[in-house]
Amino acid sequence: MSRTSRRNFLRGAAGVSLSLPWLESLAAPSARKPSTRMAIYYVPIGVVRRGFFPGEAEDAIPKFIGDQKEIPTNAKIPVGLHDWPELTPTLEPLEPVLDKVTFVTNLDRFYKHGSDVHAQCGSCFLSSATAHSVEESVYPLARTLDHVVADHVGDATPFRTLEISCNSHRDNKESIYFDNVSWYGTNHVAPSIRDPRKLYHRLFGTREIRDLRNVTDLVLADARGMQKLLGKEDREKFAEYFDGIRSIEERMDKLERMKSELAKVDVAEPPEARLPRGEYIRLMGDLMIAALRTGLTNVATMMIGPERWDTPYTYDSLFDKPRSHHQMSHNQHEFIEDLERVDRFHVEQYAYLVQRMSEIEEADGRSLLDNTLFTYGSGLGDGATHQYTKLPILVAGSGGGRFVTGKHLHCPEDTPLANLWLTQAQLMGAPLERFADSTGPMGRLLKG
User: Fold this and answer.
1) 82 in a domain, yes or no?
2) What are phi and psi of 223, to 5 degrees?
3) For the stretch 133-170, what's the b/e string if a residue is b when 16 or more beta carbons lie within 10 angstroms of its beta carbon?
4) How far is CA 79 from the centre of its chain?
5) Could you report the per-residue pLDDT of 17-30, keeping only the tens digit for each?
6) In a domain, 5, yes or no
């Protein structure tokens, strides 16, 4: 067998293929260094500020405000780059990976009056279009960051971008603007994949199989022929990789069996609402990681839930029945503890994915996370006030060792979120001097 690259495929007899992780034993002497990747983890409805942001624990609980409005805070944080502050309750799950994550505060977005506050905050999160740059839509929505970056780096991978959503509901109560963060351009959505099985076949299957068999069984016969070419460490890595793929398959089967059983119960909520959210989110996240790890794509977006939908979800071990995140957010006085539990739950899933990425070694000795910019964010700074200012933003990974980690950057007032997007685009290799309403890259987040 000839030497192969980390993007080569093993193909089984049933037409199913698996891409390989980087294996030193098979790499050519002049193997390229790993690419820089970019991934977005979008959380809907904003956060409860008291539980998320340092220095705001004693601020008043805000009342519901239909339009967007910023509520003053008592927090007094100097502008500049600092060590991490004491972790707030919502951010405590980050403790094991804190040195790999940077907290960026005081970033704002543009809000165009006259359109729905939730639809705009989700659909325009990665667009940040300027006030009058888009005439054919009520939303200031242009080509989003992921596709702008892919215009420059997407041709190097089988998939230019990967769009994932963890909203499995089919009721479609709201328009597409509430449920998509990735857009080819104004009014042209990049459809996201919502079903783990479909995502799996999108990434690893060349065609659907009527009677689905275990994909690893189909290709392992081919894979065994490679074992003699591998050193001890690569044999272990190879086994770990295929065990991981097999685990993903088993978890998909488990969720599908659970959904089938739930569908037989005569209750108001659809079975998707009662699936464990954490298992579903982690499964979709692990599939995203597999795609980034094997070089199937370098750019991915993952929308954790839709904006403003009132269809409830089951949050693992949090509540005894499905709950609506949106409805609770409009009644912070009544549901503030429950909302803080949901916020912490979302951070727990993010921390899990950060940890997983940090455990995957790449060709340059760094981890997959080290070679990635993995951003947690929401289009609202608060779910009750609908403020587009002082957004909750975390960035894990160092983009190939060039992005500062383990710090807290508190930005000057009125700093556009697009400054962060411009910085990330440049680190990804996109030769942009400006993105949307940016005023410049964020030099304090760059090493050297």
Assistant:
1) yes
2) -65, -35
3) ebeebebbbbbbbbbbbbeebbeebebbbbbbbbbbbe
4) 27
5) 556 665 655 555 44
6) no
For 370, the domain range is 34-206+274-445
Single-letter amino acid code for the residue at 127: S
Q: How many C-beta neighbours within 10 Å does residue 238 have?
A: 19
How many folded domains does the chain comprise? 1
Angstrom distance (rounded) from CA 260 to CA 234: 39
The CATH number assigned to the domain holding 315 equals 3.40.720.10
Phi-psi region of 45 (alpha: psi -120 to 50; beta: other; left: phi over 0): left
SS3 assignment, position 349: helix
* DSSP summary character for residue 418: H
C-alpha distance across the termini of the chain, in Å: 43
pLDDT of residue 75: 84
Cβ atoms of residues 318 and 341 within 8 Å: yes
pTM: 0.89
Query: Coil, helix or strand for 165?
Result: strand
What are the C-alpha distances in Å from 172 to residues 109, 169, 176, 182, 368? 27, 7, 8, 18, 36
Q: 9-11 and 17-19 as β-strands: parallel, antiparallel, unpaired? A: antiparallel
Within 13 A of 334's CA, how many CA atoms are on the CB side? 7
C-alpha–C-alpha distance, residues 177 and 115, integer Å = 11
121-176 pLDDT, tens digit per residue, is: 999 999 988 877 888 888 899 999 999 999 999 998 889 999 999 987 776 677 89
Give the residue carrying structure tokens 């070089």. 295
Looking at the domain assignment, is residue 334 inside a domain? yes
Burial of 328 (0-12, 13-18, 19+ CB in 10 A): buried
Confirm whether 226 is domain-assigned. Answer: no
- Percent of the chain exceeding pLDDT 70 equals 83
Q: Give the span between the Cα atoms of 80 and 33, in whole angstroms.
A: 33
